[in-house]
Amino acid sequence: MPRNEYQSQLADLRADVLDMSETVAERLEMALEALETGDADLAQQVIDGDDEINQQYLDLEKQCTDLIALQQPVAGDLRFIAASFKIITDLERIADLATNLGEYATDGETNIFPEIDIQELGDVTLEMLADAMAAYAEDDSQQCYAVDERDDHLDDLCEIASDTVVRELIESDELDADEDIETFMEDVSRFLLTIRDIERIGDHSVNIAARALYMIDNNDELIY
Amino acid sequence: MSEPETDAEGTDEAVSSPTPGSNIAGASGPESGPLIEEPIIQSKDISVFYGDEQALQEITMDIPEKQVTALIGPSGCGKSTFLRCVNRMNDLITSARVEGELYFGGKNVYDDDVDPVALRRKIGMVFQQPNPFPKSIRDNVAYGLDIQEFDGDVDARVEEALKGAALWDEVKDQLDESGLELSGGQQQRLCIARAIAPDPEVVLMDEPASALDPVATSQIEDLIADISEEYTVIIVTHNMQQAARISDKTGVFLTGGELVEFDDTQKIFENPDHQRVEDYITGKFG
């Protein structure tokens, strides 16, 4: 096959993007576990690891710009590089949100509403991210649509969870001292931010699926 | 694809008609086809044989007026052969045989009554290597006008053509000097001026920038964009990025003289329909 070096660079880019996604998924999983167990060391590993992911992002960004500048990609190759360029941005944002979750885990009580299953929400996002990256890796357009549909389910779960928090807040009659109220409000605020960040991770996974669909079929249907 | 409209009524005399492709028939022949706005050129099942070898396979393609159409493909795929069909340059190759129909402004240029010389006045050509005549700059540009016994203001037409070829400012004070003294890029622009001086309707270009440096190439590319406002340009190029930069339509010829895909340039370079085209333009083949 002609342009062997170019083809090799394209293959490297795909492998490196998948490698970054595995690191991001691993950090997200660790952050969710830290939220569940309160393991501060685990949470700190996620926080400290964000710089590594940022560097991966910058390296991949350079790979993309070098390919565009030096190889003048067209057609499917161009869509692949353009999609990869966008996908690494979403992966980096997911890593930032995982870092947020790690910080919430170290900041205080994370289990103030036991009836809300944060792990269930987190598992949905992990699966969405894995499916979106599988679509990218295997050129599977059906998987892209499946991720998009799953996000509606995640949004519903997050909305129910937020409503439950607000209802609990309104109905709560256990607080009497000012300092209890202040601490409780901080915990509530953190819990709502946790739900919001998980919902955003779902949105970024849909973005990845949307770019994968564009890459595979030149179809921009899922982009916004 | 619309059918060529060859059955409409003609008129007795084509000389004054603004119809694209008019006045290419010989003096005793019937009038050219009816007025059609676009496409200006319609190829219908054009095949070319060099002896027993088939170089083009039933090429069917509509080329729009006053746009740039690029023909790309690997060496030996037939793109230059097709270009030479348009102004019947293949007539000059004794072993060449053309089948099919090629309509210019609705008139089949392979009809018996078409005068190839008259046709080439309407369809100018620029070649890979700049080929100015060993004459002055003025005489180079005026050459085609002399051939067609132009009786207007030759100097004005020379100036107009040189301006059209973006060369006037560089040579206006040396019109009597030899065209061979110009740089390669200037010589090619001189050839373009020579091609457009007789006021053709179509300009064929066979790799017009492949022998030029990057600066001269970009000047030629800018010039192609400019002249496409006045003329239909069909360009053969090996440089796919050049085709992507300057053309509105792109035809992809692949080995065996087959036109595999012809579409808007953006479509070809972003999402071609055919895997063979995708493989060719991304460098996986060819």
TrEMBL record, chain A:
Record GO biological process: phosphate ion transport
Domain PhoU: 18-104, 118-211
TM spans (from-to): none
Superkingdom of origin: Archaea
Keyword DNA damage attributed: no
Keyword vocabulary terms for this entry: Cytoplasm, Phosphate transport, Transport
Subcellular location: Cytoplasm
Keyword Cytoplasm: yes
GO cellular component: cytoplasm
Subunit text: Homodimer.
Biological function: Plays a role in the regulation of phosphate uptake.
Family statement: Belongs to the PhoU family.
Name of this chain's protein: Phosphate-specific transport system accessory protein PhoU
Species of origin: Halohasta litorea
UniProtKB/TrEMBL annotation, chain B:
Biased composition (Acidic residues): 1-12
Annotated segments matching region Disordered: 1-35
Ranges where the ABC transporter domain occurs: 41-281
The keyword Nucleotide-binding is assigned to this record: yes
Keyword Lipid metabolism belongs to the record: no
Keywords associated with the record: ATP-binding, Cell membrane, Membrane, Nucleotide-binding, Transport
Protein name: Phosphate ABC transporter ATP-binding protein PstB
Upper lineage: Archaea, Methanobacteriati, Methanobacteriota, Stenosarchaea group, Halobacteria
